[in-house]
Amino acid sequence: MSVLSFESFTKKIYIKAPIEELYLAWGTSGGICSWFLKNAVYHTQQGQQRKADEFIQAGDEYIWEWHNWNGQEKGEVLKANNRDYIEISFAGVSKVSIKLEQVKTAVLLTLKQYEIPTDEDSKLNIHHGCSNGWTFWLANLKAYMEYGILLNEKEFDLTDIPLAGFKFVNM
User: Fold this and answer.
1) How far is 94 from 106, CA to CA, in rounded Å?
2) Which of 136, 163, 130, 166 is nearest to 6 (CA)?
3) Which end of the chain has less Cβ packing within 10 Å, N or C?
4) What's this model's pTM, rounded to 2 decimal places?
5) DSSP 125
6) What are 61-113's pLDDT values in tens digits?
7) Beta strands 94-103 and 85-90: pairing type?
8) Domains of the chain, with CATH numbers?
9) Closest Cα partner for 55 from 27, 84, 88?
10) Burial 55-90 (b: 16+ CB within 10 A, else e)
11) Is the pLDDT of residue 1 over 90?
12) 132: number of Cβ within 10 Å
């Protein structure tokens, strides 16, 4: 991406943690719930629910639930190599990829969200909303992996606050 556009965005962060642990944090329901989600369920193509420590695979379908948001995100795992790359459908119409790359003493995590429609609603809710959201969640992952702390709000219920997802930085 050489120019900024509403069709995609990329977020990068260095995290000092073993690449295997970072993949577990993204590639298992137990891992992704440790720092990101309230609940994550993955079903195989045969309809079997994956165990919390079982790697997701291409073709799996997922249902995600967040803290402080009553909705669900449903999608499909498009690629997962059990090492350093995951790609999912996201926000109903776009895709998200996670790439992990060892760089000296850290792992460079690159998140890209792309194939975002460019209508006004998608520009606001998907591009702007998800870009802000991923920025926080990647910082939360770094804090968790490097220092064992979580920054997201679990004590206060924000679900009844209008536009909470656009106002609170630690949803």
Assistant:
1) 29
2) 130
3) N
4) 0.96
5) I
6) 999 999 999 999 999 999 999 999 999 999 999 999 999 999 999 999 999 99
7) antiparallel
8) 9-167 (3.30.530.20)
9) 27
10) bbbeebebebebbbeeeebebebbebeeebbbbbbb
11) no
12) 14
d(CA 18, CA 90): 26
Helix or strand or coil: residue 124? helix
Which residue type does 116 have? I
- The pLDDT score that the predictor gives to residue 22 is 98
Shortest CA distance to 41 belongs to which of 64, 66, 10, 23? 64
CA 89 vs. chain centroid, Å, equals 11
The structure tokens listed for 16 are 């000092």
In which order are the strands placed within the sheet that holds 9-15? 9-15, 106-114, 94-103, 85-90, 72-80, 61-65, 39-43
Task: Please give the pLDDT value at position 83.
Answer: 98
Amino acid sitting at position 68: N
Burial class (CB within 10 angstroms; exposed 0-12, middle 13-18, buried 19+) of 40: buried
